[in-house]
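ERR on first pass: missing label on line 2. Operator R.T. fixed the label and resubmitted. Corrected input:
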Amino acid sequence: MGTQELVGIVPWTFIAQICNLFIQLWLIKKFLFKPISEVLEKRRKLTDDELKGAREAKEKADAMKKEYESSLSNAQAEAANIVSSAQKEAQSKADKIVKDAEEQAAQVKARAEADIEQEKKKAINEAKDTIGGLAMDIAGKVVEKEINENDHKKLIDEFINNVGEAS
Amino acid sequence: MNFEVNGSKIYYTIHTGIPVLGDFPITETLVVSWIVMAIITLLCIFLTRNLQVEHISKRQAIAEMIYEAAHNLVRSNTGGTRFDWLIPLVSAIFATSIVSNLICLVGLRSPTADLSTEAAWAVVVFIIITACKIRAGGLGGYLKGFTQPIPVLTPFNILSEFSTPVSMACRHFGNILSGIVIDGLIYAALAIASSAIFGLIPGAVGDVLSQIPILSVGIPAILGVYFDWFTGCMQAFIFSMLTIMYIANAAEG
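pass 2 clean. output:
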């Protein structure tokens, strides 16, 4: 078995080594670079997708938050409305009750006054009759004289009426 | 004692009858080159087996690291992604170079200890450099570039142009060959030394021990850290870097 020169270029070896280099280049590309770049690309895509998803979820959450806040403030306004209307109603009801009570009281008072007036009249009339009779008796006894009762009655009534007006 | 360093062995010669190229010798260089290619390819297949997007294995992490390192090396030295097409070539040269350089550790002859290998790579790089220059400045611009700054310098410019691949090839080849020569010298010297030292032991014991190169165990490994490991890695790196630099420079015109 011979050996080639230590330092020298063998044409066939030279050509073969160029071919080897390009075969090696192709093999490395096929078996290392392509699969790795595919995986890296996939990972990049996955990360991008997840980021996008997270961003979307955040936007959604923000929108929901805004919605909740607005509905909450609406509810608060409504509650305030309800409370104020209830207060108004209560106030008006209370006013009405008081007014009714006052009216009623006024009626009661008026009726009582009318009753009193009537009683007074009645009492006066009774007193008039009683006093008239008494006066007739007294006068009859005093004068002991038969007098025309009708004339007397007239006189006495006049008297009493004068007394009544004076009293 | 004689010591000699030979070129790579010729296992078989195919008679082609082609005038200039001559016969096709199947040399040790070629056979080991194929072994190197097989190792690299199997390593690539092994590293990229069962790739996952999430929960990656250590193997995949190493593969991705290599991928990123190759991209970073090229991109940081060329400034941008303009030279991404260069990445597989540089990776192929680097991987082949480093495995070829280190395969001498298992007793095979490095394919890079044959100037034909480095010359092949350098010529490929040279062709790419020239193509980039022509593409950047046009054929006229490329040829005119040889007469710059003054026409008198034209021969020197041509010389310097051709010195690029020659220096690239010879630098790499010289370093690897010198490693082989030094390794051979050290083995030979240590064999003589151990024979001389153990020959001092009287009687049959000394005769037997002096025949065994005991000092050759261990000591060459320590020296091999520099001459094989360091030089091997360094030359692979230098060749790849020069490839990137020359091509990036050429494309910028």
